[in-house]
């Protein structure tokens, strides 16, 4: 039957050997975590109070997203064997093309007036910077990631305090750069993800190592933050207080270590989970993770449409949150992505970005 063949083909795309189920699952969790950060007023996490655990989505979801982006870049550029020669040139052109696409889409989403910090512009710059990392080995990438994670927060605190950001021009530049997710520090997460891809992320030993090492880093980062006693109110009192914090979106040293470790551990856990029969109940989340750009963009566009129709203002954050949109947005995204993946295939924006990058990277010459 043609229908059976079509469905089998779609299923093979979602669950075949070309896809890594655990990466899709981790990416799906990151997408829904960013939905929660946008649509809910998240509490501070208190391990003794399960009602606050949803607060884990704040800040950590976007860092998880960035780390997985590094894994994807590593896989795109050859996996365990970095691209060389003509293949390396093609990979670099495709990364630039994807960066252009992401930046333009990010700017369009900013224009909607929806009051969120759009991450796509930052991703665009991270993709461009990753071009320099593509030829590097796993050892070099992971060493570089560690060095950047330890050094760049010192620079980041100084950069964030520049008076320029408080000006009208500074606000425009920050939006264009996606500075809420500063690429000069976040390149550490990209390098880490690429490093794990180079190690051979399909290997069980690598996945266990990610879970253990990531959990250890998270314990160090959050543990040091807990004993330091620094809170958000005291951060502005000194350079050191701004640096020595794990507060979400602070880009402080302890956030980079703690949340970076958390992201690595989550990816490792998802990869290990999807080595079991649990990969099948996770299919809906994996479908979201297979088309993250579509899901992320659809959320902001839907937000703009609903807010304009109901509130008459796309920028009314608290008014929109009062509508309690998280559950319907999350459910519609999960159902919609699952149906699309099983009935159509690749996410629409993922398809367009891939075609755009392939067109720009195809040589043009005699005979073409």
Number of strands: 0
| H and E string | HHHHHHHHHHHHHHHH
Whole-number mean pLDDT: 91
Strand content: under 5%
Radius of gyration: 20 Å
What is the helical fraction, as a range of percent?
A: 55-70%
What is the count of distinct domains?
1
Largest sheet: none
- Note the overall shape: globular
Task: Explain what the structure shows.
It is a single chain. With 368 residues, the chain is mainly α. It has one domain (2-361). It contains 16 helices and no strands. It has helices at 2-15, 21-39, 60-76, 85-111, 120-130, 138-160, 168-177, 183-200, 204-228, 239-243, 253-273, 283-290, 292-310, 317-321, 326-343, 348-361. The model has no long low-confidence stretch (mean pLDDT 91). The chain crosses the membrane at residues 20-42, 62-83, 95-111, 117-134, 141-159, 179-197, 204-224, 256-278, 290-311, 326-345. This is DUF1624 domain-containing protein. It comes from Microbacterium rhizomatis.
